[in-house]
Amino acid sequence: MSKKIITPVSALADILPKDYQDLVTEGPHGKSLGIQNLGTFKEITEEHPHCAGCGVSLGVRLVLAALPAPEDTLIVGTPGCSFFALSQTSLNYATSAFGNQNAVASGLKRMLKIRYPEQIKDVVVMVGDGGIADIGLDLTLHSWFRGENITTIMLDNEVYGNTGGQESGMSSQGRVLSMAPKGKNFPKVPVFELARTSGCVYGSKVTVADPKRIGQSVVKAILIARKLGPTYVQIYTPCPTNLKFNPSETISIAWKAQKDHYAFEEFITEEAAELMAARAAT
């Protein structure tokens, strides 16, 4: 894909901060980079508006670094904390109404197949737990039922991070939050299990404490979605602001979760496994 769509017009060249211009000149487009190269290219502006220690912004950075073809990737988002980071990148990014992201992504993927029949265009949904597990659960599930060739990535901070820390369907049972003063009274919505039984051909559950596995999961999910159907990656991205821990503890909190309720899990259909094995053999 041409960089024209992400390159600032000449009229703005002298007033747009260099931080933004560097996203194009120093970005990962067309360079076959990955998680292991993080720090050698610019995937997000340095002064993005997230809180210190934000797990979501870290999750976004790790996913962006892992995209197999960032120049040919369209990210679909929805209102929430993830929006603030994604709007500070040089990727093609579309925001939908809250919860509509998988329906929008389905239409965009179908359109891109028609518009570019000889090229691969990856469509990736990347939103928070509220957008997928709560308001957008029905549209998410139906995109999986239909077998859409899209990847869905949940940035799960287990709370409504940008509206004051209310409980989410993905909050852990018993967690005390702004609108759960006695603790949330039901378990996490089992979205990972729903993905397995609703048509996803690959799924992974991981935390921001494990960048290597995030990179591997994102690459697998996108490559498999191109050929076989919907895939799902669920990433734990803890929120220091609303879960009330020190911003310097984000990785340690994620690591503890990985040893407890957020242990790494992965499922893959036989056909998807054969596809990845054939790709590795070439």
UniProtKB/TrEMBL annotation:
From which residue to which does any coiled coil extend?
none
Q: What's its EC?
A: 1.2.7.1
- What EC class is this? oxidoreductase
Q: Is the Lipid metabolism keyword given for this protein?
A: no
Per the UniProt record, the source organism is Desulfomicrobium macestii
InterPro entries, A to Z: PorB-like (IPR051479), THDP-binding (IPR029061), TPP_enzyme_TPP-bd (IPR011766)
Per its UniProt entry, which superkingdom is the organism in?
Answer: Bacteria
Name of the featured protein: Pyruvate ferredoxin oxidoreductase beta subunit
Q: What is the lineage of its organism?
A: Bacteria, Pseudomonadati, Thermodesulfobacteriota, Desulfovibrionia, Desulfovibrionales
Tell me the keywords, alphabetical order: Oxidoreductase, Pyruvate
- Gene Ontology MF terms: pyruvate synthase activity
